[in-house]
Amino acid sequence: MKRIGFLSFGHWSDTPHSQTRSASDSLLQAIDLAVAAEELGADGAFFRVHHFAQQQGSPFPLLAAIGAKTSRIEIGTGVIDMRYENPMYMAEDAGAADLISEGRLQLGISRGSPEQVIDGWRYFGYRPNEGETEAEMARSHTEVLLKVLEGEGFAEPNPRPMFANPPGLLRIEPHSEGLRERIWWGAASNSTAVWAAELGMNLMSSTLKDDEGGAPFHVQQAEQIRAFRKAWADAGWQREPRVSVSRSIFALTNDLDRAYFGRDSASADHVGYIEAETRSIFGRTYAAEPDVLVQQLAEDEAIAEADTLLLTVPNQLGVDYNSHVLDSILTHVAPALGWR
């Protein structure tokens, strides 16, 4: 059995062929798609976070709204860029969203990817400390977040408060018990996957990673997952970790599917540079008739290693079409692979 969810980048554009013309469209359709996904039997609704872009940049109002309108599906991010985050305020927002959803929040965080503007985190008021890189700043913010999510008091109470305080040091409120164990790190490299395991975070691995060795994407990603699991065991954590991978997968079941994605049937991994000094490998798109998809996906080593599969969806094609995309995988592909 495998958990299957969707991952939306939340794009909108006021163009003739877009079904998602505005920020309002993007947010409201995201809620509708999560509700539809739950009704179809999917397990997760996840959203990418980008700042300074026509995409979803403020995840917690959206996650809280989905949590209030659903009852079973996991809700989460993939991922929040920690260079931009105040970990204290983030802990408050995350705690509230998790309580509204009754413990269904799966919070994916990371250093983030190159953004729309140069060093965008500066405009949010953040600077690396002297001798610290922006990646190290993100990891420092993360360590603070993890600490406060444990729920231990750390702040000295005012002796004359407006409202009565409980005894002892105060913690961030609202506190949601168990959320600390549902934090995921989006790792682009094997070393950051190991770091995430050492801190007790789950692993979220996307459709691209640092090219470390030249093997096919799914092989490298499987190696990353195995390195994560070994580091987890070495760290002595008692609970079982979660691992997700993202894929673009489209079952071609009708003429519209073929018109949109038929050309991707010959897709292959490719290598490029998303940063000047970082060579990355990008995973292929899977697009084929369901029986062919079953054969192809059975050979994907990283999917086999993961407990959770996130399907990237073309959100600008609208809720109805994306519901069809999810339903096609859940109905025609997942059972044949033993995922259902």
What would you note in describing this structure?
InterPro entries: Bact_Lucif_Oxidored, Luciferase-like_dom, Luciferase-like_sf. This is Flavin-dependent oxidoreductase, luciferase family (Includes alkanesulfonate monooxygenase SsuD and methylene tetrahydromethanopterin reductase). With 340 residues, the protein is of the alpha/beta class. It has one domain: TIM Barrel. Helix content is 36%, strand content 19%. It is built from ten helices and twelve strands. The protein has helices spanning 23-40, 59-69, 87-100, 134-149, 190-198, 217-235, 255-261, 290-298, 301-305, 319-333, and strands at residues 3-8, 44-47, 74-81, 105-110, 183-186, 202-205, 208-210, 243-251, 270-275, 278-282, 285-288, 308-313. An eight-stranded parallel barrel has the order 1-2-3-4-5-6-8-12, surrounded by seven helices. It has a three-stranded antiparallel beta sheet with strand order 7-10-9, with helices on one face. Helix 3 links the parallel strand 3 (74-81) and strand 4 (105-110). Helix 8 (290-298) crosses helix 10. The longest helix is centred in the middle third of the chain and has 19 residues, at 217-235. The relative contact order is 0.14. The model has no long low-confidence stretch (mean pLDDT 96).
